[in-house]
Amino acid sequence: MDNILKYCIPEISLEGGRGCTIKRFWHLLSKKCKEENESFNGIDKYMKNYLWTYVLQLKELGFHLANKDNEESQFKEIPLKDVIKETLESLNEKYGEEFRIYVKYEYRKKHIIGSEDILCSRITNSQYLVLEAIAKNRSKGITQNDIAKKLNMDPRSLFHCLKILMDFKLM
């Protein structure tokens, strides 16, 4: 079980500040487990409920409501004590796709950038947001144009930002 849970934080970190839905969370976890063990058969309903009790104990995780129109500052935080009271099914019924699991910023930043404190302090907020957008789209890729639109950045600034990230060997 520890092997499965060790994937939670890095995988959710790569989803960014919006986090991921419960459905996406199980997909990411199953995919990662399958990569590590070809004989892995998936996570059934009973295993999900069992693992969920341990997921709720991970201090790095938080829960909020986020729809497509909200900015990160507008997400409605859901206290852990409220999440613990609900079952997985009731969370899905009550909140649907708006319920998100996310990794708190300080932990997410370390997973995306690495544990180099000096490097963490040298990365600007815009550079971090670009890196986070690239990480979130790791499986399908994202164009510079799409990053610029998504982050409302001037393409020339984005080019400079990408160059710095390459100099830091972060991409």
Set out the fold topology.
Elements: H1 2-5, H2 8-13, H3 22-36, H4 45-55, E1 61-65, E2 76-77, H5 80-85, H6 88-95, E3 99-103, H7 105-113, H8 117-122, H9 125-136, H10 144-151, H11 155-167
Antiparallel strand pairs: 1-2, 1-3
What does this protein structure show overall?
With 171 residues, the chain is mostly helical. The protein has 2 domains: 2-104; 114-167, Arc Repressor Mutant, subunit A, CATH 1.10.10. 57% of the residues lie in helices and 7% in strands. It has a 3-stranded antiparallel β-sheet with strand order 2-1-3. α9 (125-136) packs across α11. The longest helix is centred in the N-terminal third of the chain and has 15 residues, at 22-36. The radius of gyration is 17 Å and the shape is globular. Keywords: DNA-binding, Nucleus, Phosphoprotein, Transcription. Residues 125-170 form the B-block binding subunit of TFIIIC domain. Pfam families: B-block_TFIIIC, WHD_GTF3C1_N. One of its GO terms (molecular function) is DNA binding. One of its GO terms (biological process) is 5S class rRNA transcription by RNA polymerase III.
The sequence of SSEs as H and E is HHHHEEHHEHHHHH
Number of strands: 3
Principal-axis shape: globular
Low-confidence spans: none
Specify the helix fraction band.
55-70%
The Cα radius of gyration reads 17 Å
Structural class: mainly alpha
Mean pLDDT rating = 85
| Number of helices in the DSSP assignment | 11
